[in-house]
Design brief:
D-Maltodextrin-Binding Protein, domain 2, 2 domains, ten-stranded mixed sheet, 14 strands, about 20% strand, ABC transporter substrate-binding protein, plasmid, signal
Length: about 375
């Protein structure tokens, strides 16, 4: 598909300066000035223990002197879109400027007319499969779906998806969030279906639903969702989470309780997340500046320090910006890591959202 050069318009006072294809050096000065005039950025669903966002937010504030208003740090992707819709026409503190959502939710938000186009300076280093050609959404990082296990409760960690059906794990297995709206849970169900041998797309979604129905019927699936707190308390001793979550939790817990982060042996999936700017952003220039920051070398390495895989990983590795010693904390994935195609994810997400309650019915608050 031919890439279109998009033009964003930056207003500083009464001047209007054209900014094609992201901001270049002199245009960055204008963008910074316009963002500072707005004075604030409103983000949503950026937990401080998620992919290094505590340091990234602080780095952005330190670098540009803007206030960052943080909404609903534990919100799921569907909730982020709902928040944009609920605040159309509201320029107050409850209207998000930017969203960070599971990849499947980028096209959904675009279809619903919730986004505006903007291409960052490093646009060419974002893989084509992880971005909208017109710049309405674009991948920022990805995680590797893993089992996070509380070793005080579980003496032998599961090695693969089928192991979760073991009677030894009765009342022990949980999803991380509501699978009708949360990307990490949608991909948990989808990965289980792929591991069962189903074809990508709707077939894998339904196979994954069947697997979780078996977990429920066996008594292994818990009705609640696995948060850092519930994992620490032993209330959800086995939960699917991104590898970065498990490693971060283990560091924060300092061995109390001890945790395992296990990459499923047969197959697991990469979960790509995406950034986008709300069409109704009260602070559109601050939003664009935030995007430039996140997709710069500094921002991408910030994700890596937060134990997530930056979307520019391949290009930065090739250019020597990511060295071997930066990867020591990340678990090895071998050859079992699958990057699902976007069309399959959209299809699977629709099936899981529609059929989760009727097929499984557990853990859906």
């Amino acid at each position: 598909m031919i890439r279109k050069r998009m033009t964003a318009y930056l207003t500083v006072g009464v001047a209007c300066l054209a900014m094609p294809f992201g901001a270049h050096a002199d245009e960055m000065d204008d963008l910074v000035a316009a963002a500072k005039a707005e004075g604030q950025l409103t983000v949503i669903a950026l937990g401080h223990d998620w992919c290094g966002y505590a340091a990234l937010i602080q780095g952005f504030k330190d670098k540009y002197g803007l206030t960052v208003n943080e909404l609903s740090p534990t919100a799921g992707s569907g909730e982020e879109l709902a928040t944009i819709k609920a605040n159309i026409g509201n320029n107050g503190s409850q209207a998000p400027d930017v969203i960070d959502v599971g990849l499947v939710f980028g096209p959904i938000a675009q279809k619903e007319g919730l986004l505006q186009s903007y291409k960052v300076q490093t646009w060419d280093e974002i893989p084509a499969t992880a971005k909208d050609p017109e710049g309405q959404w674009y991948g920022d990082y990805y995680g590797v779906l893993s089992f996070v296990v509380n070793k005080d409760v579980i003496s032998k960690s599961p090695a693969d998806w089928a192991d979760l059906l073991d009677p030894a794990y009765r009342k022990s297995v949980s999803l991380p969030a509501d699978p009708r709206t949360a990307n990490n849970s949608i991909l948990s169900v989808y990965a289980a279906g792929l591991a069962a041998g189903a074809q990508p797309g709707a077939a894998a979604a339904r196979a994954g639903l069947e697997f979780y129905r078996q977990l429920k019927d066996s008594g292994n699936l818990l009705p609640g969702f696995g948060s850092a707190a519930s994992i620490a308390k032993g209330e959800t001793p086995i939960t699917t989470r991104w590898d970065s979550n498990g490693i971060t939790y283990a560091e924060n817990f300092k061995g109390n309780p001890p945790l395992d982060t296990i990459v499923p042996a047969s197959l697991t999936v990469a979960g790509v997340y995406a950034q986008a700017i709300s069409k109704y952003a009260p602070h559109p220039h601050a939003a664009k500046l935030w995007m430039e920051y996140l997709y710069s070398d500094e921002g991408q390495l910030g994700y890596l320090k937060g134990l997530c895989h930056p979307i520019r990983f391949d290009a930065m590795r090739k250019s020597g910006k990511i060295a071997d010693d930066m990867l020591t904390k990340l678990p090895a994935t071998g050859n079992n890591l699958v990057f699902p195609e976007l069309s399959h994810l959209v299809e699977a997400g629709e099936v899981i959202a529609k059929e989760w309650t009727s097929t499984v019915g557990a853990g859906s608050k």
